[in-house]
Specification:
The chain is mainly α. It contains 16 helices and no strands.
Length: 319
């Protein structure tokens, strides 16, 4: 069978089949054509794949949004926890008003908790605060006010107040005010306070003023002041209740020439208060000759505080 015949036979068959199909359509009721099964399956598969992919994308986006929401909420919570309310502005203390309220306390003012606040307010005020106290010390008619002013000037330790304190030391008619003024000059240790302190050691009629003034000279390294202070400690005329305070002044100065006095106390005294003061003085001097006496205290039946203090002094001296 040649090729042209095969072609003609195939064409005829196809044409015949088409005519038969057309006739069948004319004879059957009209209805919507259904897609071939293979096409329908392919279409459904494609739609399902598209839906699946879309669902996957939507699910991924929802998860991303949830994570962003959680992160934002966590950040806000952290920021809220880290936020601190701004501190309220600190109100300035009116040192004049507070001074007026405390001036009637007398000696009790030194132990009152408000004294520290008043002193801080004076320091914060600077020059006006010092001038305010100096003016009170010079002109106030109330001894309690002058005493409190002198005590505050001691705490402020401003050299510009030396003149007012020296004037009070020389002229104030109240011995407690003069004692406070002399003590303030002694603690401040200003060289300009040497002359008024030296004058008070011999001229003032009050024993307490003379001793305070001698303490001030001793702190300035003046031998005459140190001698007066030591003589006052050893004098039979010194009230017993004042001897420990004078010894404390000598310990604060810690002049090497007083080391024998403190070593003797370690050997001869059982009183814990005197021992503690003497141990502190010898430690401050780093007096090697006192180690044996200090070790004896460590090995003694003294209270634990005294023994521990002696042990610490030995350690400091040996360094």
């Amino acid at each position: 069978m040649n090729s042209s015949f095969r072609t003609g036979l195939l064409a005829g068959f196809i044409i015949g089949a088409a005519l038969m199909a057309f006739a069948a359509l004319l004879l059957r009721p009209r209805q919507e054509p259904e897609p071939p099964p293979a096409v329908a399956v392919a279409t459904r598969s494609l739609v399902e794949e598209q839906l699946t992919e879309e669902n996957r994308r939507l699910k991924t986006r929802v998860e991303e949004l949830e994570k962003e929401k959680d992160a934002t909420a966590k950040k806000k919570q952290q920021e809220k926890q880290e936020e601190k309310p701004a501190p309220a502005p600190k109100e300035a203390v009116d040192y004049r008003e507070l001074f007026a309220r405390m001036s009637d306390f007398g000696l009790g003012a030194l132990g009152d908790p408000k004294f520290k606040g008043l002193l801080e307010a004076i320091k914060a005020a600077g020059k006006p605060g010092i001038e305010f106290l100096s003016e009170i010390l010079r002109k106030s008619k109330t001894a309690s006010e002058r005493f409190l002013a002198a005590a505050l000037l001691e705490g402020a330790a401003d050299p510009s107040s030396v003149d007012a304190l020296a004037l009070a030391l020389k002229n104030d008619d109240d011995e407690i005010v003069r004692r406070m003024a002399s003590h303030a000059l002694a603690v401040m240790g200003a060289p300009s306070g040497e002359a008024p302190l030296r004058a008070a050691t011999t001229e003032d009629k009050d024993w307490g003023v003379r001793v305070n003034s001698a303490y001030g000279l001793a702190k300035l390294g003046k031998e005459d002041g140190l001698k007066i202070l030591r003589d006052s400690y050893e004098s039979a005329d010194t009230p017993p209740e004042y001897r420990l305070a004078i010894l404390g002044g000598l310990a604060d100065v810690a002049a090497p020439s007083t080391a024998p006095l403190f070593r003797k106390i370690l050997s001869d005294t059982k009183d814990a208060a005197y021992l503690l003061v003497s141990i502190g003085a010898l430690e401050k001097m780093k007096d090697a000759e006192s180690i044996a006496a200090l070790q004896a205290i460590v090995d003694s039946a003294q209270p634990a505080m005294v023994k521990q203090r002696a042990a610490k002094a030995i350690e400091t001296i040996r360094k």
